[in-house]
């Protein structure tokens, strides 16, 4: 992990951390500040990136170290507000990544805030767990994951697709995703597009921009990106048998 000395407003750290956190995090909900957080920490956070309010500031199990969460991005500050740590906090005895625990909670909140009616959903008759997948029809590994939809359904996995054109907006990939979302049968259009078959070009109002904003908030960098029911994020393709096991375990854990 990297350590930086304050004051942050007088060093290049603000620009560097702003790059890490991303401008998409602006406008996030007001932070819930613990009463026990020292004033030096809250002041350092206020100076860190002016105009950007964290979601939460809270003490960690490490004495004198405080977690600061901006969306799913997590950093740590020393109690005197002089040092910032960017990275993961691992509890060696259990192997738990405490930073990722926080990220999972925030990811789940962001994903749960999206309207399922605006997703392309493939659901088995009996659902055991739900995964939410940021997808692009031009992505080979997205197509490979989609080819295993029957195996996922047999495992009780409900798949909810969110649109994430890797080429951005405007792009041919975005136009194709819009056509999928606007099709009379979005599930079939998704299947056809991922199989390389032509689909009818259509336009309508879609939530794809909202999906892309959510992707930025939780740190999506490519497709497919899979978010399990408890907020765990799996970047990249995962074989169906492993995905079924991990998705159902996440649901069984109370996610």
Folded structure, characterized:
With 255 residues, the protein is an alpha+beta fold. The longest helix is centred in the middle third of the chain and has 15 residues, at 98-112. Helices cover 36% and strands 21% of the residues. A six-stranded mixed sheet has the order 1-6-5-4-3-2, with helices on both faces. A hairpin with a 4-residue loop joins strand 7 (90-91) and strand 8. It has nine helices and 13 strands. The chain folds into two domains: 2-95, Disulphide bond isomerase, DsbC/G, N-terminal (Nuclear Transport Factor 2, Chain: A), CATH 3.10.450.70; 112-252, Glutaredoxin.
Largest sheet: 6 strands, mixed
Strand arrangement within the widest β-sheet reads 1-6-5-4-3-2
**Overall tally of domains:** 2
Shape: globular
Query: The CATH topology of the largest domain, please?
Result: Glutaredoxin
Secondary structure class reads alpha+beta
The radius of gyration is 20 Å
One letter per element, helices H and strands E, the order comes to: EHEHEEEEEEHEEHHEHHHEEH
